[in-house]
UniProtKB/TrEMBL annotation:
Name of the protein in its database record: DNA-binding beta-propeller fold protein YncE
Organism listed in the record: Humitalea rosea
Domain of life where this protein originates: Bacteria
Pfam families listed in its UniProt record: YNCE
Keywords assigned: DNA-binding, Signal
Statement: the UniProt record of this protein carries the keyword DNA-binding: yes
InterPro entries reported for this sequence: Host-pathogen_enzymatic-act, N2O_reductase_N, WD40/YVTN_repeat-like_dom_sf, YNCE-like_beta-prop
Stretches assigned to the YNCE-like beta-propeller domain: 16-304
Record GO terms (molecular function): DNA binding
Signal peptide residues on this chain, from the entry's feature table: 1-18
Amino acid sequence: MRVLILLLTLAFVAPAHADLLYVLNSGDADIQVLDAGTREEVRRISVLREAHHLVWAPDRSVLLIGDSGGNEMLFIQPATGEVIRRERISNPYHMEFSPDGKHLVVTSLRRNQVDIYNWDGADLTLAARLRVSDKPSHLAYRPDSKVVYVTLQGTRSLIAISLETNQPLWTMEVGRDPAGVIWHRDRLLIGIMGSDNVAVVNAETRVVERRVVVGRGAHALFVGPNDGPVYVTSRVDSRITVLDPGSLAVLHAWNVPGGPDCLTFDPEGRVWATLRWAGRVGLVDVESGTMEETRVGRSPHGVLFVPRRDVAAAVPAPAP
């Protein structure tokens, strides 16, 4: 009997090194781990209140998932979904590691603060807390890791913060309710959620050089595999727009019912999208634009595809 229980436990925790899909159900206070091949649930992780975003540690040994409503950061073993530890962190809404892997910047949408943490490869240490106004949302880094840029939804603005002094450098207006932001080929691209466009910003001159129309509720931006196209989700028009990585011309515009929010990519180049209003995850074929849907929890937000090569590498070797 003990052997049978052990085998069943191992099968549940590590499903034969399958590709995994992590889905953060912000409306259900949990994290679903799916077998990406079968779409079957292999684990469900309870959080205190409301998980929104997640990020790989720089060495890809652990996942960090922010429970913004519960004021916790979860450290997750990516191969199994096992919770390694939980750490008290103030309102971790959006977060990203700096390109050099030395800092984790966390935005607090509810508390109007930006926290800068030092990272030593295992632990976070709070280096600075900046009070900002208002609604700090998403963030992106300059490639040299010296500056972080944060969108401020409540003031139509973008703020630049020095990671050398941990002090603000400047603020500029970019449009109503700015949300997602990425650094792309010497420019910042910002989803203007209160409108229908992506603002293309020159951070040196602090000028909005152009606007690319993508659809109402332009929200988050993601660069495809191998520095490929830029994907933009528009939650009001329920659309995913694909932009040429060089010219930013619109290549495709897929109507995706359910309010697409966050995206992740698998090794075959397919796009997985959380459908925020529908409680589903969509798998989009980039050639045809067709989508398959899988029911998940309420208000799914962050999503991450973990390939089996990462799963296999992260599973501890059996004891001799």
